[in-house]
Write the structure tokens for this entry.
Amino acid sequence: MENATPMYRQYLEIKKQYPGTILFFRLGDFYEMFNEDAINGSRELEITLTARQKDSPNPIPMCGIPHHAAATYIARLVRKGYRVAICDQTEEAGKGVKLVKREVVRVITPGTAIDPQLLEAKESVYLAAVAGSGETFGLAFLELSTGEFLTTEHRGGNSWSKACAEIESFAPREILYPESLAALVESAFGGGPRMLSDAAADDRSLSMRFSATLTALEDRLFHPSDAEALLKEQLKVGTLNSFGLQDKTEALRAAGACLRYARDTQKAAAEHISEIRFVESHDHMVLDAVTVRNLEIVESRGESNRRTLLGVIDESVTGMGARLLRAWLLRPAVRRSEIESRLASVNELTNSFLRDQIRYLLKEVADLERLVGRLNLGTATARDLLALNRSLSQAPRIRAALSDADSLLLQVLAEKIHELPEVTDLIARAIADEPPLNFSDGGVIRDGFSAELDELRDISRSGKQIIAGFEEDERVRTGIGNLKIKFNNVFGYFIEVSKGNVARVPDDYERRQTLANAERYTTPQLKEWEQKVLGAEDRIVRLETEIFQDVRSRVREETPKLQSTARALATLDALAALAETAVRRNYVAPTLHDGDEIAVSGGRHPIVEAFLPGTFIPNDVYLNNSTDRLLIITGPNMGGKSTLLRQIAIIQILAQIGSFVPARAARLPMIDRVWTRVGASDDLAGGRSTFMVEMTETATILHNATPRSLILLDEIGRGTSTFDGLSIAWAVAEYLHNSPEHSAKTMFATHYHELTELAENLPGARNFQVTASEKDGDVVFLHKLQKGKASKSYGIAVAKLAGLPQSVIERAKSVLGKLEKYELAVFRENPADAAAEANAVGRAGAARAAAQISLFAISNESLIDELRDIDIERISDREAKEILADLKKRVI
């Protein structure tokens, strides 16, 4: 510091105030980075790393980027999880000013992104905050670009697991937490994308992979009284009780920290955050990360991101409509009245004339939610205001289109759309048709809006014309034909004369600069006009900036009405999208009821159907909480059992967002949660095998399912030995059938045919099979669900389709035949033992166990056959020894 320049001291003082950020320090036309910031920045941005004071014992690493291209570079850093502090000059450089004032004007972080370069039109960017201890944890989620603000609280012995699951469902870009919770939060979400490993084994689920920047804050920033005061100030209320925050201390702390962080990073009041909503888990259907992934709701398990439920039904035409549709899918409604109001609107919008008219008008609507956000955060540009104006110009036409709507929701939406003629008139009069990106280029404000600005523009234009005329006059006066008057930012206006004409320069010319091939001059007259022109241009830039900020401020005063309009248009877009999907894909309106029956006729899987080259085979499914609460589904591999399970859950989810469903008819109850245990995956980083993950997910279901839940189980117990797996699957099925607290409607697909015997003993269990047929060793999958149990799994036929060598197929058939033969023999020869086993796991289970034990003998039966064929009377002792040695090597 002793030998540091004043500028570098200034940098170090500012950097000290913003630890954990990369500081972009404005120097002239560049943003510079120093020290570790420069090293990180040059590596991540792939730009040249240089140094100040290169010849000193301690050179300072340094790199820089042009200020006009900063947005692109900032976006690249923030996407990688960095926080970037923007330090700008806050005063004009002038005579006598050795060091201009600089300060950080904004901090851009992954969770507070509002710039278009950092946002996906169809995805929300959440900032999350966590607070709590012991058995109570509060969460807050803020979407800064739109002002959406949610909070919740979890209590009880498994509260941390539930909090983690909630965080996963929102997949925030950044998580704030007090330093006292660092170990807990970082063990769950640290290290970038990873699997969640939580100590509460009875209530944890396999985490969906998502990347979040972790930001630890001082505990004092989570103080409840400070949080309450901040929220009251922001929401302009005297009490927070109307927002559901009474006695919710941890939720209050999280919300306060979230809001403070947003305001501190943006250096703005963020007045578009005008409400906060407390969310209870029973306010919507709960879909944990495992279920969202297994059902491919918003993300495909394969390579194509389009092959998702959202990808199939999203026919929205605005970004805000697409985000709302995504939110509905991740948190479906549970209030029947709310769902039926959406269904009525979708039904009315299936009218092609009304729907096409609405969608045509919405195509001209920009992302109003995010425009209002930028407006309130002080980053809205002139082009943003024009986009806002174009959007508002559609409001009268959309309201007119909805004027004869029958459904109550469409009528309500029409009332919430505000035309705001004063705003549209102000923007139309004030902002030029094609404003530049930068105010320094001039022309942002329309001619005729400000008399003072028009006068300055006249001075600037006339001055430039006079200077152009002065150039021609000087050519005539001096006789120098190639004399030119030019301009640059360093010297202003000057006269340039080639070296060969220097002798003809008049005495009143004052030399300004010497070049290799020319000399540059000025004159008293040129100086006078330069002052007028440049003075006018400087004042034009300042005045245009002031006028624009005033216009933006006046528009911002209408934020509540703008937000109401944005939300109404987003909802209208989402409903119209669902109607478009219903018509295009032949979906039908479901019938909702308050009972417990799921009755689907001709149901189809929307994702498979959308991408299947042939015709999808529909199926009927019936479930309730009494006679048909446990469906045991057997059938061949590739027969469609998993597809059938998933399609029932998806149909239920679609119905509860207010969508039509892919079926001939559907009568559906209100479901509180969908649980899935489908497929195989592991968590090697967390030390959990595939089977451990399977059992952990199953445990979560058994501990938390309710009679209002829907459970999909696919191949429980397949990750361990046959006997163990069958026993576990049997016990799980019995528990889900018998437990009064956790008994839920369950679809249980399995290859353990032994489980079909449950239907003979449990009153609420039913056997179904997905059919297939076999001809000449080839299997034909019929994909049809029928009552009864499958006779076999056709696994060898599927193996043949997969291309296993023919010798392997033949050997498998041989072993299978002997196993089946031996299984029958067990019961003929040992009926007493078989009956005893049947009391424990079922008669067929005992046969499977006996067959498993005898597999060693059966696998070596070919060697026994060879021994039988040896003629011991005709072989020598040496040949006998060779045969015996060979058989010994081959024995299994």
In short: The longest strand covers residues 765-775.
